[in-house]
UniProtKB/TrEMBL annotation:
Listed InterPro entries: NamZ, NamZ_C, NamZ_N
Domain Peptidoglycan beta-N-acetylmuramidase NamZ C-terminal: 228-386
Residue ranges constituting the Peptidoglycan beta-N-acetylmuramidase NamZ N-terminal domain according to the UniProt record: 21-224
Tree of life domain: Bacteria
Protein name: DUF1343 domain-containing protein
Entry's Gene Ontology molecular function annotations: peptidoglycan beta-N-acetylmuramidase activity
Length: 387
């Protein structure tokens, strides 16, 4: 069975165990036996004195993009500093009474999932204030197979934001530990980083292979299927199509009150996916309280599934099928209050909406090139920790 970095750490007695530890974490960070990491570490005598939380808060239940406040952890009674509230970066006063920072948050392998970018701000703060950073690493649930990485690679000169700061592919096929080493080096941050590696993880495996249940990482990330589809279906945030928020199946169902779902299914035939018609009524987000006609997607062959290509083609098919109803929409969040240019920020290049004006044949050819994660295998290889 997979051993997460925190499982490995719990078997060790590091010299810094009794130092004042600031732990960056959330409730989705558990041991392989599903005990919250922060609780397990405290029970083993790790001197955690301060908690820091990412988007969605320490309980991992805050609404998408909603500002999170500081507070007290109900489980440990430790103070919690939010890194998705009035600030995104830990300040001098936040780290003044801390000797070392430990990071343990699960990721889902997509560039626009914000936990990676919270980690980059932690790396910068640790470098600035001369604090060692320990990262309890975790496997990538949608595999670390670099041949399955998908672009576009982000253009950081025009599209840098909190859902993608630096040039990485949309589906990166790495662990956060690997990305931390890579970005620390290529960005010249020079933080003192140590990775506590996972054990028994092979890069080509997916979360269902681990022998550990999927722990929801945020309100809309409830299953492995959601994580696998998310690099593509996450793009629906920039449209007036529901991505399933406000239901029990976010990012596995999509729809709208005006969608002809049976016609769409005919256009989307895909041997790797099972696609079924569905109706649903969201309790929040788009079309709250309205009956939506949609589709439910289930990936049957994970190993060869191209999530980004699938999401782009889905949007194109719906746009062409319903030109009178489909529209692009802003997506306001704590870090982008106006919600403007959301598709550009998700995809990582400017004027991305114009891509969808191409005829379908040209569009298919264009996205085939766009989703190549150019030079990524070569660039990331020196920083890989697992085979």
């Amino acid at each position: 069975m997979i051993q997460f970095g925190v499982d490995v750490l719990l078997t060790q007695n590091p010299v810094w165990k009794n130092k004042r530890i600031g732990l960056v974490t959330n409730h989705a960070a558990t041991t392989s036996s599903l005990q919250p990491s922060r609780q397990a570490l405290l029970q083993k005598g790790f001197n955690i004195t301060q908690l820091f939380s990412p988007e969605h808060g320490l309980d991992a239940k805050g609404a998408d993009g909603a500002k999170m406040a500081d507070g007290i952890d109900w489980l440990t009674q430790l103070p919690v500093t939010s890194l998705y509230g009035d600030k995104l970066v830990a300040q001098a006063e936040d780290l003044a009474d801390i000797d070392i920072v430990l990071f343990d948050i699960p990721d889902i392998g997509s560039r626009f999932y914000t936990y990676l970018w919270t980690l980059t701000y932690v790396i910068e703060a640790c470098a600035k204030f001369n604090k060692p950073l320990m990262i309890a690493d975790r496997p990538n649930p949608v595999s670390g197979n670099l041949s399955r990485a998908e672009g576009p690679v982000l253009d950081e000169n025009t599209c840098s934001s909190f859902i993608g700061r630096w040039a990485t592919p949309l589906r990166h096929s790495c662990t956060l530990g690997e990305l931390a080493l890579y970005l620390n080096e290529v960005k010249g941050i020079h933080a003192n980083i140590e990775i506590i590696k996972c054990q028994h993880w092979q890069r080509d495996t997916f979360q269902p292979d681990w022998g550990v249940p999927f722990v929801p990482t945020s309100p809309a990330m409830q299953s492995f299927q959601s994580a696998l589809l998310y690099p593509g279906l996450g793009l629906l945030e920039a449209t007036n199509i529901s991505e399933g928020r406000g239901t029990e199946m976010p990012f596995t169902i999509i729809g709208a009150p005006w969608l002809d779902n049976n016609l769409l299914i005919e256009k989307l035939l895909n041997a790797m996916m099972e696609i079924k018609p569905i109706t649903f009524v969201p309790t929040e987000s788009k079309y709250t309280g309205e009956l939506c006609y949609g589709i439910k997607l289930s990936v049957k062959i994970s190993t060869d599934f191209e999530a980004v290509n699938n999401g782009l083609m889905l949007i194109k098919r719906i746009k062409d099928q319903h030109p009178e109803h489909f529209s692009w929409k802003p997506y306001p969040t704590n870090v982008n209050p106006n919600g403007t240019n959301h598709l550009d920020l998700l995809l990582g290049f400017p004027q991305s909406e114009s891509l969808f004006e191409l005829p379908i044949k040209d569009f298919a050819e264009q996205i085939k090139n766009l989703t190549l994660a150019k030079n990524w295998q070569e660039n990331i290889r020196p920083y890989l920790l697992y085979s």
